[in-house]
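Contributing new records

If you add data, match the layout below exactly. Sequence lines come first and carry their own label; structure lines follow with theirs. Keep one chain per record. Anything else will be rejected by the validation script.
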Amino acid sequence: MTCSECGAPITRESSFDLGGGKNLCSSCFINRAQERRPLSKDDLARLRKSVQRESAGPVPRTILEDILHDGLRRAYAGKEDTPAIVQSMADEIERLATLAVGRQVIDVISALQKSLLEEEEEIRRQVKRVADLE
């Protein structure tokens, strides 16, 4: 996969899908954001940090951090057993990872389905053209 604007190679995880088959790398995405409204240095730094966090893996880092912060808060409160808190955090991370992987599988299946439909349409056109020649 390549960036639609600069042609740089990108992965599904590091790309920004704008629809219509247009995918941007993080640099082009940030440039597009600046075209809409000039960004201050602080805004740009926050956007870059956000882009890095969101493209780090199947489960966004911010969500994992939220789970850990919540677990630490509960542990410091001392109202629950530490093993129960750890088990709860592990269960939540496992649920999120399962959903994220499921979403990726659905994306792959959708892409394959679209490709197969396009190929089927092309085959139908070719068969019709051959039939018209006879």
